[in-house]
Design a protein that fits this description.
By secondary structure, the protein is an alpha/beta fold. The protein has 3 domains: about 30-235 and about 285-300, P-loop containing nucleotide triphosphate hydrolases (Rossmann fold); about 235-285, no CATH class; about 355-520 and about 555-600, Nucleotidyltransferase, domain 5 (2-Layer Sandwich), CATH 3.30.420. Strands 3, 4, 5, 6, 7, 8, 9, 10, 14 and 15 form a 10-stranded mixed sheet that branches. Strands 16, 17, 18, 19, 20, 21, 22, 23 and 24 form a 9-stranded mixed sheet that branches. A 3-stranded antiparallel sheet has the order 11-12-13. Helix 14 links the parallel strand 20 and strand 21 (about 455-460).
Amino acid sequence: MVARKPKNDTESLFKEIIKEIVAPPPDLTVSEWADLYRKLSSESSAEPGQWSTDRAPYQREILDSITDPETEKIVIMASAQVGKTEILLNGIGYHIDYDPAPMLLMQPTEQLAKNFSKERLGPMIRDSSVLRGKVADVKTRDSGNTVLQKSFTGGYIALVGANAPSGLASRPIRILLADEVDRFPASAGTEGDPLSLAEKRTTTFWNRKKIFVSTPTIKGASRIETEFELSTQEHWHLPCPSCNTLQPLRWGQISFESIAMACKSCGSLHSEFEWKAQKGKWIAENPEAEARGFHLNELLSPWKRWGEIIREFKEAKKKGNEALKVWVNTSLGETWQEKGDGLKKDELSRRRETYNTEVPSDVVVLTAGVDVQDNRLEYEIVGWGVGKESWGIQYGVIMGDPGQDFVWNELDNVLFKTFQREDGQELEIMTTCIDSGGHHTKKVYEYCKNREINRVWAIKGKGGSGIPYIVRPKNRNESGTYLFTIGVDVGKDMIVSRLKSSQEQDGYCHFPMEREKGYDDQYFKGLTAEHRVMEKKNGQNVIRWKLKASGARNEPFDLRNYASAALEIYNPNLDMLKTTLSQVNPKSHPAVKKAVKKRRKIISKGIR
């Protein structure tokens, strides 16, 4: 009799083979998935190649909270240089490859969403092999994929701008990722708060996830700070190398001299590398909260040295409050606390000084701003030096109906004359911005169109958060004019910051004592006519500039804004111009002074 293999052995072997083929993959967290499959792209990383969570160990728990079934909302309030964008990308890659779902990624604007898709998401898909085969190339015919939407089996990722209500139209979303929420507009068109609109798209999913990420902005108006305060409020703690006391890395404990941090308990100073060599952990200040919240600052970053952070702080402090505010937001990951409503007019008028010259010798560029009223033009000419130090040169009014040519002809006499510096050299106004709002828009367009060669530009002011200071026109408008959009709130923030600067800081503002220059008490009253106020819009706190008193005149404030915008449009190298001017000094060399007066030789662009 021939021996036969028992049937149950064959069945067992067959079952094992089938199990191996169809069994689900082992459970992976997002950090485990990234450590296995994520590749960093050369376009966006200084360390391209295989991802390693151990490079920045504080990221592990943040990443793994994305797969925690007990956590619905994750809030990350963070500085720059801590890998917050990579956290979003790893979450996207995980769900494309391992747990397909409909996803929505929000950026402040649609253009930023396109940039994110092209510069970050596209390269990750290209370089991570497990993703490359699952998302068809945008160029593939009938792929269903575009720059702003990428489909894959079981889901898709749509990328939208918070400023575009059409991108937030009703669609089911299980994973919501909102990047830089503090830069979202208060309303998506007329539809309301964009983040609230997006959150509503997740309501049909029991296993939804909401991930909000941002560097913070101003205290009281920061959306990410509000979300963080409602969360677990977790900070990454490291033990002191001397006494093992757990503590976060705090700026107030940093020693500039030794580039080290003092322990809050024993006072021992240890270097950056000694602190970061310790094993850290997240500790919550509000552990009972439902949402998990994480705070990150640059002191934690493996990509930013403490010495560089200290140097950037010193530079920001020298440049003034506006630069210091950016540093606090982007290096410490903290909100900026505004101090007071602004300056008093008497404080500024007491600052006036006697020039004894038409233009002080430290001025290297002149710009101008023009405001159009129903019965007059008002203008200011501002001189600029190194570090954007400024000097008020002339404030004036041209009375008359701006609908009449003689008013504009008189403006020509102001804008196209030369101004003599203390050392004898002559400067021209290099750029002028004229407000096109009001009842004389057509006349402004006509005037500016005929003087584009002189860099006289029509501008239109636009208020609100998220509006850049200068938006350069790509084409002429219907009147054939180049129309620049000016983010007036950004400009006003900057001007007030400069007005608060001390003489040791960049951006200090000088004003003349001479009566004929136009800087009288009424000027300073107008310069300080507005203040910042916090208001509710669509349920969110927003900061706006408003008149302190109804009917107050604020033309000096607006004109300083326009003249400052003119400088940004022209964008000169102020240091180079100062060097050029210093090479020809008529005051020290009478022969050169004579030659300059006779030949009016052009020394550098815009300087005669």
